[in-house]
Design brief:
alpha/beta; elongated
Length: about 325
């Protein structure tokens, strides 16, 4: 016998094919007795819903694209896992794309990769510009993640980076730290996440009457372990060294802690280190890393929900939504936890 079809299930259950379809689509106006008979037939025949056929009949592919800058950065890998789990739960499939933070790849994502294999796109941009979205085809649903200076152009989900950094710095100030360096910091550049986190750090210091010398704001070429190690070593060579380091992601924090250990400094006895993102490695390093933990699962759930709502609406369906996801500071050994 070939693969069972709806009409086979209908014959086995003694109902119409339309009734089987109603049960599969969970329509309300079906008696429990009929519903039970159809489910028994489905189990007995081993019937499986043809998802591809159903999606095509609705004019959809059942596929969404998730485009992130770098899967070697654990935050994006962990976020991708949550997005894929959520889309699977909602009956869709995720196509994962790595953009490298390159403008042309992010622009291709906004345009749906000039193909018709995706119903919508979730994009975490680094290089995208406001003009890139000005004339985009709004029939392709788009949700932006992270801090991007593109207000009102598409649905957007991010944490409050200014508040998160301010809370992390307040924690360090409460521990008596006063020369708090920012690894990955940037007050004037185009990396919005770095800029906003540096602003939050600066606000906390200003409220406490603590200065932020220029030499304690240290940009980095990339947000990787080696960049954190190099930055930490440069800071510890200053005539007046820092007594804490706020690292703007956990890769930088882990690299900084390794370099400090190799050079004979003790964390947190000599200085504190705080990171961002709460990646898994921070829970197993020595010392464990104090970090700002974005609600990655919540970000993924809301991004997928917004995207599928736009897909179901068949178009823009109202003004863009700008949502703030939750975060919390997790205090661990690297700052006395």
């Amino acid at each position: 016998m070939g693969r069972p079809r709806i009409k086979d299930v209908a014959e086995y259950a003694g109902v119409s094919a339309k009734t089987v379809s109603n049960v599969l689509n969970d329509y309300e106006h079906v008696s429990e007795r009929t519903r039970a008979a159809v489910r028994e037939a489905i189990d007995a025949l081993g019937y499986r819903v043809n998802i591809a056929g159903r999606q095509l009949r609705r004019g959809r592919t059942g596929m969404i694209a998730l485009a992130v800058p770098d899967l070697d950065v654990a935050y994006f890998a962990e976020l991708a896992r949550h997005v894929m789990a959520e889309t699977e739960r909602r009956g869709s499939t995720t196509l994962l794309v790595e953009t490298g933070g390159r403008h042309e790849k992010e622009l291709a994502a906004v345009r749906g990769f000039d193909a018709q294999f995706t119903d919508g796109v979730i994009l975490s941009p680094l290089a995208l510009l406001p003009r890139d979205l000005a004339d985009r085809d709004t029939r392709l649903p788009l949700v932006l993640l992270g801090e991007c200076n593109l207000p009102g152009s598409a649905d957007h989900v991010a944490i409050d980076n200014v508040t998160a950094a301010r809370e992390a710095t307040e924690h360090l100030l409460a521990r008596g730290r006063r020369r708090i360096a920012v690894i990955g910091g940037d007050l004037h550049g185009s990396r919005n996440t770095s800029r906003l986190r540096t602003v939050g750090h600066q606000e906390a210091l200003a409220a406490a009457g603590v200065a932020l010398p220029d030499e304690l704001v240290l940009p980095v070429p990339a947000f990787r372990w080696a960049d954190g190690a190099a930055a930490a070593r440069a800071l510890m060579r200053l005539p007046k060294r820092p007594d804490a380091m706020l690292c703007l992601n956990d890769h930088l924090a882990l690299g900084a802690v390794r370099a400090l250990h190799e050079d004979g400094w003790s964390v947190p006895e000599d200085l504190d280190v705080v990171g961002f993102d709460d990646i898994e490695a921070t829970r197993f390093s020595i010392p464990t890393i104090t970090t700002v933990a974005p609600d990655k699962r919540g970000i993924a759930r809301r991004a997928v929900e917004l995207l599928l709502d736009r897909i179901d609406a068949g178009g823009p369906g109202g003004p863009a939504v700008d949502e703030t996801a939750g975060h919390r500071l997790i205090v661990r050994e690297s700052s006395g936890g």
